[in-house]
Design goal:
By secondary structure, the protein is an all-beta fold. Helix content is 0%, strand content 42%. It has a four-stranded antiparallel beta sheet, with no helix packed on it. It starts with a strand and ends in a 6-residue tail after the last strand.
């Protein structure tokens, strides 16, 4: 999973240090690149994640 946005890595929030599991999903969308999820940490910081890809058979 790749995380995009200022102050985040894939394990914790760079602003408050909470684990990634503390973030709530605001929305998610399927794309040809995979699933894009928009998350918000309890401290208010947002992040965008791209998970996986669609298999092509």
């Amino acid at each position: 999973m790749r995380a995009y946005g200022t102050g985040f890595d894939t394990r914790s929030c760079g602003a408050c240090g909470r684990p990634e599991g503390a973030a709530e999903v605001e929305s998610s969308h399927y794309t040809t690149e995979g699933i894009v999820r928009y998350l918000r940490c309890p401290c208010g910081r947002r992040r965008v994640e791209l998970a996986g890809g669609l298999s092509r058979g």
